[in-house]
Design brief:
The chain is α+β, with helices and mostly antiparallel strands. It has 15 helices and 17 strands. The chain is rod-shaped, with a radius of gyration of 47 Å. 21% of the residues are buried.
């Protein structure tokens, strides 16, 4: 020990109570304290410094002789609240140790954060004779901790400001971190959104989908769409999951590091875009369906007109044949022959005027989708006429082979007839119900209304052209709707029946084969 160090060391013998070998114990104690990698000081009960170790000098910048006899307050800095020092002295006066943090000042004026422990030293009678102070500079640790806290705050702020829902999932698909958008979405879902998304992910990729993501078999993650049905309507989301691994922070992992797998889930809502697309799709459907309906009406009207004109022409032709065979020439025969020729020419002109039907390939058709399309096309009219409509569609309905545009026209004709029946019949109850289900090898559509219904005697006649229960003064083509339906059903090897509805009006029953039948 140097002379400079000796001058700063107090007599430690009293602390060993005069035990045998106390000098050796004192020497060992001093040697330990001198080499300790922390600032150690001993003061009297007024906090005047009696001893400091070299690490104290290294930390504070003061020499051993500079601090001896000075009050420990030379290290104090004004930014430490007075209440902290008051609490320190209250503990020491009670004979208790105090631990806390103080802002200290080095000799050169530089501030540092000190983690401090002050312990009273007592004599054999329990009276406090000195104070032992131990402190270390934790400025860098504090700065690092503060940066980590700030980074966490910044990350949370960025996540919460993000316009998409973000969640971090652990190996058990439990949410360990999420943002405000995700919390709001969870409230709308009324359950953890991640559960629904993981379930759909497994439907698309299999039961080991999450493991594939975590092992980075899908480097870019996997995207999927999710449809959420609520009382206020459907909502659509784009979801993406990607996996990564992070080192575990447990004590047991210090020497043998392990990692845990996580999934990052992002959910962005595109309901507004989807609804806009749906509106555009419905508008285009309305245009196409209106054109198709007009084409069907023109075709059926012209076919019916030709059929009805052909009857009188056939009668005139028969009369001409009879009169021509007589010996005497009939005065009106020439006029009848002219009328016959004019009628035949008119029929030929009508046949030539028949519009060509657009060709549409046979393809798999989702009847439920067609019903939804027709319901969307008729929404405005249903609202205008104050007629509520309920859909009861079997979710697992199989597809059929057919022409979607023609089938859509047929279903819409039946729905229009149901609305017309309620409008012109003015029943007390106003309601329409559409159901779909599977019956043996057929897909069945039921359209029920609460109108006046169709009398039993007219249920077959109703399919004849120009037969209608509408008032004569009503707008639109009368009596061609059901003939259009019948034609479409014939093309699809299906059938249409009219029955009594449980709602009190008419029930239209459409049966379509699940698979295309042999039409030969």
């Amino acid at each position: 020990m140097s002379k400079q160090q000796e001058s700063a060391v107090i007599d430690m013998t009293p602390f060993f109570n005069g035990e045998v070998g106390s000098e050796t114990a004192v020497s060992q104690f001093i040697q330990t304290v001198e080499q300790a990698p922390m600032a150690i000081s001993i003061t009297d009960t007024d906090a005047n410094i009696l001893y400091v170790n070299p690490w104290f000098c290294q930390t504070t910048g003061y020499g051993l002789q500079e601090v001896k006899g000075l009050n420990h307050s030379i290290l104090s800095y004004r930014t430490t609240p007075a209440e902290v020092y008051q609490g320190l002295w209250n503990q020491l006066k009670k004979g208790r140790s105090w631990q806390g943090r103080l802002i200290n000042r080095r000799k050169n004026g530089e501030r540092y954060l000190a983690d401090v422990i002050v312990t009273p030293l007592t004599d054999g009678e329990g009276e406090t004779t000195h104070f032992l102070g131990i402190h270390r500079d934790v400025t860098e640790t504090h700065e690092l901790t503060t940066k980590l806290i700030n980074q966490k705050t910044l990350v949370e702020a960025v996540l919460n400001a993000a316009p998409v829902a973000i969640a971090l999932l652990d190996e058990n698909q439990q949410v360990v971190l999420d943002n405000l958008s995700y919390k709001a979405l969870a409230a709308d879902f009324q359950q953890e959104p991640a559960k629904q998304i993981i379930a759909k992910l497994k439907e698309e990729l299999g039961e080991n989908a999450t493991e594939q993501l975590r092992t980075r078999r899908f480097v870019e993650g996997h995207s999927l769409s999710l449809e959420l049905k609520q009382s206020r309507g459907e909502r659509w989301f784009y979801c993406k999951l990607s996996g990564f691994s992070a080192a575990d922070s447990g004590v047991d992992d210090y020497f043998a590091p392990t990692a845990s797998d996580y999934l990052v889930l992002t959910i962005s809502e595109h309901t507004k875009e989807k609804r806009h697309q749906e509106q555009q799709r419905v508008s285009e459907l309305q245009r196409m369906t209106a054109e198709s309906e007009m084409m069907h009406v023109m075709q059926e009207t012209l076919h019916a007109a030709i059929h009805q004109m052909q009857g009188p022409i056939n009668m005139i032709e028969a009369a001409v044949t009879v009169l021509t065979g007589r010996s005497g020439k009939c005065p009106g025969l020439e006029a009848m022959e002219m009328a016959l020729k004019s009628g035949a020419d008119a029929v030929d002109q009508l046949r030539d005027a028949l519009p060509d039907r657009p060709q549409e390939a046979q393809q798999p058709v989702n009847i439920n989708q067609l019903v939804h399309d027709v319901a969307a096309l008729s929404t405005q009219r249903l609202l205008k006429t104050s007629i509520p409509m309920q859909l009861k569609l079997t979710a697992t309905l199989p597809s059929i082979n057919g022409q979607p545009s023609r089938l859509r026209v047929a279903i819409k004709q039946l729905l229009d007839n149901a609305i017309d029946a309620i409008e012109f019949g003015k029943p007390q109850s106003r309601e329409i119900e559409i159901q779909t289900y599977m019956d043996d090898e057929s897909v069945v559509v039921l359209i029920d209304d609460s109108g006046p219904g169709v009398p039993q005697a007219n249920k077959i006649k109703a399919f004849q052209p120009f037969y209608s229960t509408k008032p004569v003064a009503s707008n639109g083509a009368r009596g061609v709707g059901l003939s259009i339906v019948q034609q479409v059903m014939n093309e699809h090897c299906g059938s249409t029946l009219l029955q009594r509805s449980p709602l009190g009006g008419c029930r239209a029953v459409i049966s379509l084969p699940r698979r295309e039948r042999d039409r030969s």
